[in-house]
Fold each of these.
Amino acid sequence: HLRDRALARLRDRLVDGVLTVTASERRSQLRNREEAANRMAALLRSAIAPPPKPRRPTAPSRAAIERRLTDKKAQSQRKQQRRRPAADW
């Protein structure tokens, strides 16, 4: 079950069924190997993690809707005040 999930999630990174991880930030080969092992462990941990719970859609609250509309009106007023006054002829 976990193996199937990991294989499915890592299929883009697999080359002939082998997961390859590289690290070359450090000058020491030993440190790079340790870094690569840490990356491999992190990759596998994230690959076998359970899928996230589906998002439950929610509607905005009445207060949030009113707040958005008042902000919208205020922005509209601000922009109207920036306009040049209409010529009266």
Amino acid sequence: MAPVCAEVLSLIGRLYAIEADLPQPHVLQGEQQAAALAQRLAVRQEKSAPLVAAIREWALAQRSLPGSALRKALGEDPGRYLLHAALAAIETPGTVTLPSSSD
């Protein structure tokens, strides 16, 4: 595996690890569900947001590579594209369906 790929895969793996440790609000009700949702938001803002920013910076660096397939796929807003892809994968474990850059 190319070192540049290992870097971003490590960041994505860290996002998955954060998500795995969060409570699952869909199995809770009432105040417990509200508390779980608040905790998820706080953890995502504190821990996930810096990782998403690092992934965005990585993606922006890859856009500079001439002829890069990633550059073409990312289009104008790589952060939005990657965040959408990461959240889709987290929300639907076991699937990896990447959105098109026009989503």
Amino acid sequence: MKIKYCSTENAKINLNGVNTELSSNDLTENEIYDVISIENGWYRITDDSDDDYLYPPELFEITDDSGYEELKRRDENREWAKPKKEEKNA
């Protein structure tokens, strides 16, 4: 799956209740990035720092959705996507 970064200015994202501004060095406008995985609905990509990070999907446009269903299925099968089982007290 490939996505294009569409923001024209430093984007602000909410991380654990803290508003964080992405550095303009992290992503390049109109650059195409490969999605490594989808985690809790966010895209994991290797950004311009050559490290992989999670980014919210609203910052991107999907340019090639091949592999999207498989990435989404893997995300849905992760532990955070499953409801927690209630433990019974004996």
Amino acid sequence: QRSGSARGRQLRGPRALRQRSGSARGRRHPFRWSDWLSVGLGRLRLPPSVFWSLSLPEWRALLAPPPAHMPLARAEFEDLMSQYPD
């Protein structure tokens, strides 16, 4: 059993979800299925079976912005190594 309050710490798990959803304060915001359907079936063109089987981490990976820059390819790395030997 942990002592102390959760104040000042970031909550995780079901309790955090309840607080973030507003149920702890008596407010509930409806889940916007139309937005998810629009993105998944429209923009990403996922088949319905794939849409409904995606986990939350898979959704995060699909919707994450691309990296700012791509890592060097082997040939580019070797070219830099030949130009700047240490």
